[in-house]
Amino acid sequence: PHDRDVIGRMLLVLEEAMKEQEGDLFRFRLQELLSGLERRHRVSFVFPPGMDTEKETWAIRMGTRAAMRQRVEVARRLTPLGLAVWGPAEWAKTGIEGLDWRGEASWDADLPKVLNASAVNVNVSKIQFDTGVGPRIFEVLACGGFLLSNRIPAIADLFEDGKDLVFYDSLDDLQAKARHWLARPEARAEIGARA
């Protein structure tokens, strides 16, 4: 049980940390940000010392929020290039002007068709999971699709940049590479076939 003052400081810490994290969409910094903010605001509830169930739940929620913000910003940058998005209804509520949201795609029937029909598939691995490789990477590559993916260590350890897929390191880099590869269908097809 926390008193109102402590709860108020906790919420302040969470909001400050999320605002700072959202300014750095390609490096998961919540743990370091929260540690400093907890000391400054004299609260301790999310990260060390000790990771109990409540702290872990907060960390997962914050990571999920940061990942969604990352995906929205990626979509915002690529919409002018003709991006189409398949996914949950939350996409229709993002406020991205001109976003071509096409609804959900069923994993078994629709997804392979979408991946094959897409000139450039974009992967946005959740930044809080830098040691895992999500299934979308393998799904796109198994379909022979061309993939632009954010560079995280686990993916970079498995695949060669420019040969199996193409990595991007920032929003500007993603936008430039998307433009570059959209203009080169034969080169995209070679990478997709090789992958």
Low-confidence stretches: none
Mean pLDDT: 85
Beta-strand residue percentage: 5-15%
Task: Indicate the structural class.
Answer: mainly alpha
Between the first and last Cα atoms, what is the distance in angstroms? 53 Å
- Main sheet properties: 3 strands, parallel
Order of helices and strands: HHHEEHEHEHEHH
Oligomeric assembly: single chain
- Side-by-side strand order of the widest sheet: 3-4-5
| 3D shape | elongated
Q: What does the radius of gyration come to?
A: 19 Å
Q: Count of helical segments?
A: 8
Estimate percent helicity: 40-55%
Can you put this structure into words, describing what you see?
This protein is mainly α and 195 residues long. The strands form two sheets. Strands 3-4-5 form a three-stranded parallel sheet, with helices on both faces. The mean pLDDT is 85. Helix 1 runs antiparallel to helix 2 and helix 3 (53-78) crosses helix 7. It has helices at 4-22, 30-41, 53-78, 111-117, 135-142, 153-158, 171-182, 185-194; strands spanning 84-85, 100-101, 121-123, 147-150, 166-168.
Question: Key terms for this structure?
Answer:
195 residues, mainly alpha, two-stranded parallel ribbon, 8 helices, 5 strands, elongated
Provide the fold topology.
Blueprint lengths: L3 H19 L7 H12 L11 H26 L5 E2 L14 E2 L9 H7 L3 E3 L11 H8 L4 E4 L2 H6 L7 E3 L2 H12 L2 H10 L1
Parallel strand pairs: 1-2, 3-4, 4-5
In short:
The chain is built from eight helices and five strands, in the order αααββαβαβαβαα.
